[in-house]
Specification:
By secondary structure, the chain is mainly beta. The chain has helices at about 35-40, 95-100, 115-125, 130, 175-185, and strands spanning about 15, 20-25, 30, 50-55, 60-65, 65-70, 75-80, 80-85, 105-110, 115, 140, 145, 155-160, 165-170, 195, 205, 210-215, 225-230. The chain has one domain (about 15-230): Fumarylacetoacetate hydrolase, domain 2 (Alpha-Beta Complex), CATH 3.90.850.10. A hairpin with a 5-residue loop joins strand 17 (about 210-215) and strand 18. One of its GO terms (molecular function) is acetylpyruvate hydrolase activity.
Length: about 230
């Protein structure tokens, strides 16, 4: 057995509906501008030639239901509710017709964004890492196995302090789930444990300490979060 200089970190994981086992999380791939109305509200257009992506590290994972301190380095934290696809089998260079075979299950996710840092990066033509990839920036619900959920036109919504901010249907996604998996699989060897956050509908907005966030997707486990004081 290998010995380490200090204790190795425990892998991030998520609960599974109806099971005592947990889903270990590997990489988190995020699809940008996958709802046309959200792209428009951000002053952009959808690139209909191919999806584009950014990544979050596993340290970004935070389970639904807790309190997250207001993140450091920002004065403009935004919410983005998303559908999450959990990969359960290796997939590489898949066709669209075969891509869905790799799906293990589904959940709801909150892509928290330091919007001011993202905007600064965009203006300087730099990567979005500081704006998107930070501790607690991927708040995730329990996962539902694929056999128990079939994506169609289910409602996706988010409320802040009881007031609706985002309200759409997942069928409004520009790129379908099989299309996204197939495209990603031409750039990565996707593996069991990988998650894909599939983009957010219009209505994103700022969060403040004390805000209570709730939302989800019809038929999947709900998502809840409270924003705590800054550390």
């Amino acid at each position: 057995m290998a010995e380490y200089l200090f204790p190795a970190p425990r892998p991030a994981s998520l609960p599974v509906i109806g099971q005592g086992l947990r889903f270990p999380v590997g990489r988190i791939f995020c699809v940008g501008r996958n709802y046309a109305a959200h792209a428009a509200e951000m002053g952009s257009e959808v690139d209909r030639e191919a999806p584009f992506y950014f990544l979050k590290s596993s340290h970004a994972v935070r389970e639904s239901g807790g309190i997250l301190p207001y993140p450091p380095g920002t004065e403009d934290l935004h919410h983005e509710i998303e559908m999450v696809v959990a990969i359960g089998a290796p997939v590489f260079r898949a066709t669209v017709n075969r891509a869905a075979d790799a799906i293990w299950g589904y959940g709801a996710g909150l892509d928290l964004t330091r919007r001011d840092l993202q905007a600064k990066a965009k203006a300087m033509q730099r990567s979005w890492d500081l704006g998107k990839n930070f501790e607690g920036s991927a708040v995730l619900s329990a996962l539902t196995p694929e056999r128990d959920f079939h994506p169609a036109n289910q409602r996706i919504h988010l409320e802040v302090n009881g007031a609706t901010r985002q309200d759409s249907v997942i069928s409004d996604m520009v790129w379908s789930i099989p299309e996204i998996i197939a495209d990603l699989s031409h750039y990565y060897h996707l593996a069991a444990g990988d998650l894909i956050m599939t983009g957010t509908p219009a209505g994103v907005g700022a969060l403040r300490p004390g805000d209570r966030v709730s939302g989800g997707i019809t038929g999947l486990a709900p998502l809840e979060l409270t924003i705590g004081p800054a550390e």
